């Protein structure tokens, strides 16, 4: 079932991605126009053009992603516990295709996960650093893993290889915890969880489902504050926020329906 879920999730996203939906709208509208369905084509193209203009002009993705990013505040050093049993880093900050293409470690938009992990590793010099991530892309399943790249990156950043616990089979958040549970130094221990802020609710929900006690340490914030947000006509930059926000809300819903999370919108306290 895990294999079916993984493949279907990737295929579904190809049709649900906001950028792809806008392009599909223009393509479909053009085809309808060519084959003679002019009234329907005009309505579709007008709607699509309006949506594209809004995404081009204004960072509407901020409104989708901010509730996710605000769900768990970043704890200060003073708020962190005296000791933890490990630091768990979820894969996602690596750029595996470019790394394989250029044979050089490359990172993507989620690289802040490594900076957060480095900070925590220095604060807890005796805590094991646990990375979990295989390959989340269908075409790269047998070409390389995020885990091998993560080991290189963490070592370059000064984390001793002896402290690393690497899990390399997981392909999504559910599998991150499914496979990492077997590697935890202490099953009922307390672990710091490092992942992108917008992804933290789903990650915490899955952790609770597996009974792993985590303290969220969100990084990689994508939204602008109200004071900074403005019309700036930067389509690509706006998609960089809209795409993960839309994907995450879909992911939360699917994970809840399929029983992979403890709640639809997990919080620090389950009743929140």
TrEMBL record:
One GO CC term on file: plasma membrane
Biological-process GO terms, alphabetical: Gram-negative-bacterium-type cell wall biogenesis; peptidoglycan metabolic process
Domain DUF218: start-end pairs: 85-251
Pfam families: DUF218 (PF02698)
Segments passing through the bilayer: 12-37, 44-61
Protein origin, superkingdom: Bacteria
InterPro entries linked to this entry: Cell_Envelope_Assoc, DUF218, Rossmann-like_a/b/a_fold
Gene3D superfamilies: HUPs (3.40.50.620)
rRNA-binding listed as a keyword: no
Keyword ATP-binding: no
Keyword set, alphabetical order: Membrane, Transmembrane, Transmembrane helix
Protein name per the record: DUF218 domain-containing protein
Origin species: Hydrogenovibrio marinus
